[in-house]
Amino acid sequence: MKKTGKSFFIRTFRINGFLLFISLILFLVRVPFKMIVSFLHNETSSYLAEFISKVLGEISNTMDGVIVLSVATLLILVIPELITRIVHDSLANWFNSIWVSFRLRKFLIKQADHEGEGSIKLQQHNKAIRKSIIDIRDKKITYIIKLPNGVQAQKLILETREILREEISSRFPDYTFSNFERYKHWFRIEGTKIR
Fold first, then answer.
1. What Å distances lie between residue 174 and 10, 137, 145, 149, 190, CA to CA?
2. What residues form the membrane-spanning segments (predicted)?
3. Alpha helix positions (H), the chain
4. How many CB atoms lie within 10 A of CB 45?
5. Smallest Cα–Cα separation from 93: which of 18, 9, 192, 21?
């Protein structure tokens, strides 16, 4: 990976999450649709029931197509990463990257304090935090966090750099971590395995 570039895992992390979310939501909506279509199919006594059954059947078929498309796209994005992890790294690090990304996001989400910090500033800060990702490999760890557009929200992230660095270092004592470096709208910290 280039010093300023992002790994395939980091580039596809949010896309994969979105595709998985869409697939699950559509699947959950599809089940009641199929039940209603099956119920209306048995009620052939009226023209209206038959018409609604056909319309809902078409909607259900469209949802099936979108589910298949999103799952296929998800597999196209995930399988190369999994193969790379199996050959050059480990699957445990892939799962750990996902788990720790969500744990660090939860750790960094900021709530309004008693001084009444501006809600827009907090929203921008938390939105940026929700885009942070950690990529854990056997020899290297990369953590990136997107900087928000607002100056005050950026200041909140800049103030938490050392706390975040300590948190990451304590989670991974076998790695030595650099200082945060800025690249365009991202802050990045890298860890190298020392043991």
1. 22, 12, 22, 34, 13
2. 12-33, 65-83
3. 8-42, 47-88, 91-108, 119-129, 151-159, 161-171
4. 8
5. 9
Neighbours of 93 (CB within 10 A): 17
Sign of CA dihedral 12, 14, 19, 24: positive
Q: What domains can you pick out in the chain, each with its CATH number?
A: 8-88 (no CATH), 91-193 (3.40.1720)
- What CA–CA distance (Å, rounded) separates 111 from 123? 9
Contact 33, 56 (CB under 8 A): yes
Neighbours of 30 (CB within 10 A): 18
Q: 44-82, pLDDT tens digit by residue?
A: 567 777 787 788 888 888 988 999 999 999 999 999 999
